[in-house]
Amino acid sequence: MRSALAVIVAAMLLLAPQSGSAQQPRPTESAAPRDSGLEARTAAVASELRCPVCQGLSIQDSPSDLSQSMKGVVREQLAAGRTPDEVKAYFVSKYGEWILLAPKASGFNILAYAVPFLIVLGGGVVIAVAVRRWTSGAVNDPPSPM
Amino acid sequence: MNWKRAGIAMCFVVPVVALFAFGLTHDPRDIPSPLPGNPAPQFALAVFAPGEAPFSRAIGDTVRLAGLRGRVVVLNFWASWCLSCRDEHVTLTEVARRYAGKPVQFVGSLYQDRTSAGTEWIARMGGQSYPSVDDPKSQTAIDYGLYGVPETYFIAPDGRIVRKITGPASAIEITRTVDSLLATIATVPVAR
Question: Is the pTM above the cut of 0.80?
Answer without folding.
Answer: no
